[in-house]
Automatic annotation (TrEMBL):
Residues 95-279 form the PBP domain. PANTHER family: BLL2305 PROTEIN. Residues 7-54 form the Helix-turn-helix domain. NCBIfam families: excise. This is Helix-turn-helix transcriptional regulator. GO terms for molecular function: DNA binding. InterPro entries: DNA-bd_dom_put_sf, HTH_17, PBP_domain, SinI_DNA-bd. It holds the Pfam family HTH_17.
Length: 308
């Protein structure tokens, strides 16, 4: 295994036949050392071999996870789950203004929330539309984080809608147009905010997913969906405005979605919550987000809900 210099989280996940969230948890606990190349987390092949050897010897080998004597910084590692670029900016600010080290899990909203319930994530980003209330995020949080105290803070708002080919040749302008026979969809994976938005809109408009060509054709992120539309593999997909501009396709805005952060409230997370609050309310953070374009920071940092 040591023939390779280093591995990505995904590569190690495939090698060990475990989920990526399990690996993030091991990294968070300091059981597997990691290093960064840009935004990417990598695991040295020798460290992976040592970890496997440790398991084979019933844990008789231990990693030195205490900081060096000349390094007084905490080794606290936190996992931020979600896919928007702004979460990388948030992670950078957290590391700059605290002793936390941030790891990123690029997982959809619902699966991220379930991971938080299972103790695998520290900050979860959500954009889940509830068709019965017209509300974002809170109806889902109340059903999943049962018995847990938490705080929900607004990260930003953004427009969500439909990706279509340049010039919109099929004249797709609403959710109802997805029901047309000649329209092929590219979908998002189950548990993503975009998938939930689509499914709720189909339900509200009494459209059966069985009637939609391409409903089972899934991609795992906005860029892949937009790229599929751009390449002619599909006619339409659901996503956010910014990515449409990045890929060079047209965008049909249909809803303003709220993108929130959730953190569990415990004595251990009090410092993290205060750090995040201060960052979100800072002029510098909002300025960086606004410089990206197509984001609304008018409510950034606002407490949208908090349990007692």
């Amino acid at each position: 295994m040591s023939k390779e210099l280093s591995y990505t989280i995904e590569e190690v996940s495939q090698l060990l036949k475990v989920s990526k969230l399990t690996l993030y948890d091991l990294v968070k606990k300091g059981e597997i050392p990691v290093f960064r190349i840009g935004r990417q987390i990598r695991i040295d092949a020798k460290d992976l071999d040592n970890y496997i050897l440790q398991l084979k010897t019933n844990g008789s080998l231990k990693f030195p996870i205490e900081p060096p004597k000349n390094d007084t910084r905490s080794l606290d590692k936190i996992v931020i789950s979600g896919q928007d670029l702004v979460l990388d900016i948030l992670g950078k600010h957290i590391e700059k203004h605290s002793s936390f080290k941030t790891l990123r899990a690029y997982t959809g909203s619902l699966n991220s929330l379930i991971s938080m319930y299972n103790g695998d994530c520290d900050i979860v980003s959500l954009h889940m539309f509830d068709g019965d209330t017209g509300e974002y995020n809170l109806p889902y949080i109340k059903k999943i984080l049962v018995g847990y105290p938490y705080i929900m803070l607004n990260l930003l708002s953004r427009k969500a809608g439909l990706y279509v080919k340049k010039g919109n040749p099929l004249h797709i302008n609403s959710w109802l147009d997805l029901n047309k026979e000649n329209i092929k969809l590219v979908n998002r994976e189950k548990g993503s905010g975009a998938r939930i938005l689509l499914d709720e809109q189909l339900r509200l408009h009494n459209i059966s997913s069985k009637n939609i060509q391409g409903y089972d054709y899934e991609e795992s992120n906005h860029i892949s969906v937009a790229s599929a539309v751009s390449a002619g593999l599909a006619d339409v997909g659901v996503g956010s405005e910014k990515v449409a501009k990045m890929v060079g396709i047209d965008f049909i805005p249909l809803i303003n979605e709220r993108y929130d952060l959730v953190v569990l409230k415990t004595p251990e997370t009090e410092r993290l919550i205060n750090t995040v609050k201060n960052i979100l309310s800072s002029t510098q953070f909002k300025s960086e987000v606004n410089s990206l374009g197509d984001y609304d920071t008018s409510q950034t940092g606002k407490i949208m809900y908090e349990t007692e």
